[in-house]
UniProtKB/TrEMBL annotation:
<dbReference type="InterPro" id="IPR016030">
    <property type="entry name" value="CblAdoTrfase-like"/>
</dbReference>
<comment type="similarity">
    <text>Belongs to the Cob(I)alamin adenosyltransferase family.</text>
</comment>
<keyword id="KW-0169">Cobalamin biosynthesis</keyword>
<dbReference type="InterPro" id="IPR036451">
    <property type="entry name" value="CblAdoTrfase-like_sf"/>
</dbReference>
<keyword id="KW-0547">Nucleotide-binding</keyword>
<comment type="pathway">
    <text>Cofactor biosynthesis; adenosylcobalamin biosynthesis; adenosylcobalamin from cob(II)yrinate a,c-diamide: step 2/7.</text>
</comment>
<protein>
    <recommendedName>
        <fullName>Corrinoid adenosyltransferase</fullName>
        <ecNumber>2.5.1.17</ecNumber>
    </recommendedName>
</protein>
<dbReference type="Pfam" id="PF01923">
    <property type="entry name" value="Cob_adeno_trans"/>
</dbReference>
<dbReference type="InterPro" id="IPR029499">
    <property type="entry name" value="PduO-typ"/>
</dbReference>
<comment type="subunit">
    <text>Homotrimer.</text>
</comment>
<keyword id="KW-0808">Transferase</keyword>
<dbReference type="GO" id="GO:0009236">
    <property type="term" value="P:cobalamin biosynthetic process"/>
</dbReference>
<dbReference type="GO" id="GO:0005524">
    <property type="term" value="F:ATP binding"/>
</dbReference>
<dbReference type="GO" id="GO:0008817">
    <property type="term" value="F:corrinoid adenosyltransferase activity"/>
</dbReference>
<feature type="domain" description="Cobalamin adenosyltransferase-like">
    <location>
        <begin position="3"/>
        <end position="167"/>
    </location>
</feature>
<keyword id="KW-0067">ATP-binding</keyword>
Amino acid sequence: MSIYTRTGDQGETSVIGGRVSKDDIRVEAYGAIDELNGFVGQARSMMDDELFADVREQLLEIQHELFDCGSDLAYAKLDEGKMKVTGDMTERLERWIDVLQAGNPPIERFILPGGTGLASVLHVCRTVCRRAERRTVTLGRSQEINGETVAYLNRLSDYFFALARTANTRLGVTDVEYIRGAKVFRD
């Protein structure tokens, strides 16, 4: 099987139910999700199998779910019966975030992305996820989409923030607070 088709050589690509320009907002949205999936794979590959066994499995599940998000966005016309992203997925992310946060030190200020190499990549995941969310919101303003995808991406960026902090904590590195700002997080 050939991996090239030549069908996109004129600047168009196929979506489920039609063809669009490669710079169509739909392609931008699911393309950002695809980019995010690449960074998630990078982060997962950097994790020690034992120290991060719990979250390695979570990240693998998230990678599959990112394909689900892209699939849902690839429909030229919303077909609710075929949507894969559900509110249950977002609720599960919330439970995972709560567990991660319980093991992280308290936070009072914004933190700078970084610390360990792994935490840095997880912060890249967070920021790319935010971009994917913005592109998806833009798409949703002009076309019908599965709204659960926006909620999922929103929560997923929170997950990456919590996980970046967990990576630093488990690897014995302190997060660096943004010192020019006020205390913004309170119990």
